[in-house]
Amino acid sequence: MIKLDIRVGETFTIGDGVTVRLDRKSGQIARLAIEAGPDVRVERQRSPLPPLQTPSEEFVAKG
Length: 63
Description:
This protein has 63 residues and is mainly beta. It has a domain at 1-37. The protein contains no helices and 3 strands. The protein has strands spanning 11-14, 18-26, 29-36. The chain has a 3-stranded antiparallel β-sheet with strand order 1-2-3, with no helix packed on it. The protein is extended and about 45 Å long. 0% of the residues are buried.
């Protein structure tokens, strides 16, 4: 495994036919643009999202 630190607009290549560009980053979300030939299969694997946190009772507005 390789880990890369790149800035928005920078690209890297994988093999001879895949180019990946960091299009946008906002917080923990990054948008990647992937250019690959029609013979290259690109799949997305999602990790489970953490559960939503409910505010603690002391911070809940009293009405």
